[in-house]
Amino acid sequence: MLEDGIGAEATLPGLRGLLRTVRTPEFAGTTFHEVEARSALNRVPGTSPVPFRWTVNPYRGCSHACVYCLAGPTRVLMADGSTRPIAELRVGDAVTGTEQVDGTRRYVRTTVLAHWPTTKPAHVVRLGGGTELVASGEHRFLTEGGWRHVAGGWCGSGRRPRLRPGSRLVGPGPIGRAGAAATRSRRPHSAAYRQGYLCGLVRGDALGGDALGSDALGSGRFPSDRVALEALGRAHGFLAEPAIRPVAVAAGAGEPGRIPRPAGRGGIAPVDEVVRWPAHPDDDWCAGFLGGLADVRGEVEAGELRFTLGTDQEIIGRVAGALHRLGFRFAVGRSAGGRVVRVAGGPAALLRLAQVADPAVGRRRDISGAPVLGGPALEVVGVRPLGLSMPMYDITTGTGDFVAEGVVSHNCFARNTHTYLDMDAGADFDSQIVVKVNVARVLERELRRPSWGREPVAMGTNTDPYQRAEGRYRLMPDVIGALARSGTPFSLLTKGTVLARDLPEITAAAADVPVGLGVSIALVDRDLQGRLEPGTPSPSARLDMVRRITDAGLSCGVMVAPVLPLLTDSAEALDALLGRIAAAGATGASVLALHLRPGTREWFLTWLGREYPQLVDRYARLYRRGAYVDPEYRRALGARVGPLLRRHGLTGSATTLRGQVPPAPDPPEPPRSEQLSLL
């Protein structure tokens, strides 16, 4: 069933060979992108530590994955400080994302690489500051403790860490609407705003000169070279509008608030009287005044706006009064040239001021470089389903995230490439599955080349070839046949049970070429497995598959991975697991300790803190050096595992081919690519 309303170009822009995009009821929430691949054999880079050189991956992605999406009106923070509904974003738009800079997460500019709609059951997330976010249950927001899904559930490799009351989101915070001085990007500027903007711009420019003295107001020249083109263009437009009228004032060159008409040539237009101080400034005038002044006297550093105002006490007082009226906190300090008014509150205050005062110069709105923090207003008060499905939207950005309604929001980080969909902090794969529908035909052509040396091919080292999608596409029987006919040895590693369907083909292939089979089984404790890996085949189902493989006369090794330190690594637990593996007929086993790579690490430690908080400090010590457990622990685990493997007769090779399952015990330098982990 071809998905209505989403063409190939809009769904996966730039993906070569895309034939169609498919959704089916039996794979709810999963989108398949059927492609014609140009190649099937993938050569492993020479720098990789894995002991094989070739792989075949019929799929990119995992059909247990999730979809991240937000309701159409959700406001996304653009790179210039304005906002736009996510439904209206387009590829190429510049938005605000985040990235780690010198160990600190900071705001950065990023670009929208893809944009697409979907329809999902809606949930509403209510925050302490009054913000409400409408999103799918799978959508994730960044909290002080890592990424969290809106609702509970699972994605093939683990239970989703979810938002709960008390979870603290991070981001610049809500961008409130302040009375009459509301967000201006969606409506025209009022006459009061225009008058205030010109007053702030011209008076700020008149402060020119190194001394920034108040007598510079009488210079009579506007604009100086400090007025940016964006501000100058706005001033031109405002001065041309009929609502800007000269206001009569008393004669006298020393009249406060009067700028004499420019003499001779120079200056864009007469600006007499437009800078007169109003007797009773309203919200709009104050907003315009701050916007104009920011364009010529404002500077932003690490998300904080400062007005450099010299020694003019009148203008300093007017700035303080306007900020106070509009609800902004501020502090007045000294600088080399006089006084500086600093708007307090960091990026949140800057963005609200950008929305209220609407400066014309984009860099006066930019929060890039500011650290990403949270606050009480971003604490989750409640999450509830709305009981209906509704249109939603998602994007891909260069940073893998963006800011929506003042909080950092995850996006489909691999959508634009769809090569290898790496695991993230929520232990999820993306739900957009690239299916190489012609993989067997292309593989057969490549295997017929005279240059092909019939080296072993490993499958299941990146994405599981027997994931649920294989039940629909049935690509593996032809792949197996092509390898066997060419005389190419191959190996398969899976934690699914779909492989049992192809046992006749695999058995036939094993008569012609060496075949290695491996099954990943991490533990037999059903309760713990259900909490770590819900929705995937149970340990007993995987053991039954080992039995069916060996009953068919094939060798089958088992990868016991990952072993969880202090949870599943006791001699008793390993003895029980290896005993059941031996009873199922396995010919060998390899034991690997948990690897905590970036992304997996954050999710697992959050899970550990919730389920086994007493172990958090001990894990911090065990994994203090990075992704791999302490070498001393690995040696101790090897010493513990060795006698157990010998006792159960599992010391033989885990597979008949080197490269699919690493040898036992856990190696001193663990490979970085071949662990097919439940995490």
Give an overview in words.
With 679 residues, the chain is α+β, with helices and mostly antiparallel strands. Among the domains are: 70-172 and 371-410, Hedgehog/Intein (Hint) domain (Endonuclease - Pi-scei, Chain A, domain 1); 191-364, no CATH class. Helices cover 26% and strands 24% of the residues. The strands form 8 sheets. A 7-stranded mixed beta sheet has the order 3-4-25-26-27-28-29. The longest helix has 17 residues, at 631-647.
Write the layout of secondary structure elements.
Layout: H1 8-11, E1 18-22, E2 31-35, E3 41-43, E4 54-56, E5 59-60, E6 70-71, E7 75-77, E8 83-85, E9 94-101, E10 104-127, E11 132-136, E12 140-143, E13 146-149, E14 154-155, E15 158-159, E16 168-170, H2 191-206, H3 229-240, H4 283-297, E17 298-301, E18 304-310, H5 313-325, E19 330-335, E20 338-343, H6 346-357, E21 374-397, E22 401-404, E23 407-410, E24 432-436, H7 439-447, E25 457-459, H8 469-473, H9 476-486, E26 490-494, H10 503-510, E27 515-520, H11 526-532, H12 539-551, E28 557-563, H13 571-583, E29 588-593, H14 600-611, H15 616-622, H16 631-647
Helix pairs in contact: 2-3, 2-4, 4-5, 4-6, 7-9, 9-10, 13-16
